[in-house]
Design a protein that fits this description.
Length: about 475
């Protein structure tokens, strides 16, 4: 390898980076679909689970409906604790007015746990709807509940069992005055459930009120958020939805590594990814949409540079207090695919110096740095390291190690890429906890050939058009 000229190596670069599968035949991709799907299943994103508790008729369902309505662009499912009411024995059915529907034992909590755990792990479950008239859960055809981004768990005793509470990422208690709850309950039970008002009042004083005091109210302390006035409280619901959106926008890895930034996904961004990941996309379109995405990543990365305050006078003679760009910066591209990001960086930072690093994989010896050309004063600069794909993290570790050896402080390095495999993120973030990584999507993982999946193929070949047969 030592005798091979740099140009030859650049020519034969497909396979240098562990990034994306080679486009050497769709058959290869097809035979791997099953395996990729199983990997995808095992590393699926954890849904955000929200528990909504409160007394009967406090407005739990109403609050859930409001959240679902506001999150209509997300996949949200509502799981009602009512669906896990135990079926009554014939004897209990005969004396149904003596049955305590507000006691924790009235629910099949083991079944509820099983269902929610399955949903959390990305599996669909069948959940029956509870029928308040027949007191049965199995009368109607069970509803197939698919795994979703958000799971709302609603019920009077949903905070009672610690194991169920532990499945929740957020706990909401709907706090509505007892008289309002009673008034609503009377209306609901007499009108919707066709029950006799005396029975409703009897049930309330015998079971509902004592159970509220003994089992429901004591779980209010577990709530992260208490909503007074239930569905009338639009401000509280708006804040909750905002929080859920922030959490959904964050990849689980961002919670582990605070220096990992995944740019906020939009349908435009998803659309661009769809195009560049499609093996059928033409070179022209690939370059066009990759450039758009790269520009977004670069702009986001620049946002992490330090700034100084600056005041200017506007044409109206007013003072505008703004900021001045960081001047001491440079780019470093990892040849060859990283060079695809240089134009976007130049377009954003006029006259920016851009250095280059070439890393090659040789046999089983791992990555080898074989070429570097960096600005002499690089140790005084903030460095934007450019490589569109973070796969195993081996190339990134080589590149970052070189920068550190050149005296660049770890905190001055911002690594920009289009897609990152979790494995690469772990490797880089653990080894260099103070660098920043900015990416536009986190991948499912790596296949057995260490290629990123779902990935987008050999980026350099597709971008520079060297993947033609
Ligand atoms: N803010 C509100 N104003 C008026 N009626 C309401 C309000 N919130 C809920 N309700 C009514 O009260 C009843 C109980 O509300 P619901 O959301 O089903 O409570 P829960 O799920 O806690 O039992 C329903 O008939 C609903 O239409
Ligand atoms: N067969 C049943 C089952 C339950 N209840 C009452 O429903 C209340 C819980 O439902 P929410 O929608 O209000 O959360 C609870 O207070 C039970 O008493 C019932 O009346 N009949
Ligand atoms: Mg309800």
């Amino acid at each position: 390898m030592g005798s091979k000229p740099v140009e030859d190596i650049i020519e034969s670069l497909s396979g240098v980076h562990f990034s994306g599968f080679h486009l050497n035949g769709l058959q290869k991709i097809n035979t791997k679909v099953e395996q990729q799907a199983s990997v995808a299943e095992s590393v699926h994103r954890q849904p955000f689970v929200i528990g909504v508790c409160g007394g009967a008729a406090s407005g739990k369902t109403t609050v859930c409906d409001m959240i679902i309505e506001q999150l209509r662009d997300q996949r949200v499912v509502l799981v009602n604790q009512d669906s896990f009411y135990q079926n009554l024995t014939p004897e209990e059915l005969t004396n149904v007015h003596e049955y305590n529907f507000d006691h924790p034992d009235a629910f099949d909590t083991e079944q509820l746990l099983l269902s929610v755990e399955k949903l959390k792990h990305g599996q669909a479950v069948n959940i029956s709807k509870y029928d308040f008239r027949t007191y049965k859960t199995d009368v109607s055809k069970p509803r197939k509940v698919n795994p979703s981004d958000v799971i709302l768990l609603e019920g009077i005793l949903i905070f009672h069992d610690a194991r169920v509470r532990d499945l929740m990422n957020m706990k909401i208690f709907v706090d509505t005055d007892a008289d309002v709850r009673l008034a609503r309950r009377i209306r609901r039970d007499t009108v919707e459930k066709n029950r006799d008002i005396n029975m409703v009042l009897d049930q309330y004083s015998k079971f509902v009120k004592p159970a509220f005091d003994d089992f429901i109210l004591p779980t209010k302390k577990y709530a992260d958020i208490i909503i007074p006035r239930g569905g009338d409280n639009h401000v509280a619901v708006d804040l909750i939805v905002q929080h859920i959106r922030t959490k959904l926008g964050q990849h689980d890895l961002c919670k582990i590594y605070p220096n990992l930034y995944v740019i906020q996904s939009t349908f435009q961004i998803r659309g661009m990814h769809t195009l560049i990941r499609d093996a059928q996309t033409t070179k022209h379109d690939f370059v066009f949409y990759a450039d758009r995405l790269i520009r977004l990543v670069v702009e986001h990365g620049l946002g992490h540079l330090p700034f100084t305050e600056k005041q200017v006078i506007t044409p109206t003679g007013s003072v505008y207090t703004g900021v001045d760009f960081c001047k001491r910066l440079c780019g470093v591209s990892v040849i060859r695919s990283g060079e695809s990001m240089e134009n976007a960086l130049r377009a954003c930072c006029k006259g920016i110096k851009i250095g280059k690093i070439l890393i090659h994989r040789e046999g089983d010896n791992g990555q080898q740095l074989i070429y570097e050309k960096l600005p002499q004063d690089i140790s005084d600069r903030h460095v934007l390291l450019l490589d569109p794909i973070l796969g195993t993290g081996n190339s990134a570790v080589q590149a970052i190690s070189l920068l550190l050896k050149k005296g660049v402080p770890e905190t001055n390095i911002i690594f920009l890429n289009l897609i990152s495999a979790p494995q690469g993120v772990h490797v880089v973030c653990k080894r260099f906890p103070r660098i920043k990584i900015v990416t536009s999507e986190i991948e499912t993982g790596l296949n057995e050939e260490f290629r990123v999946i779902p990935g987008m193929g050999e980026f350099g070949d597709r971008y520079f058009g060297t993947d033609d047969e």
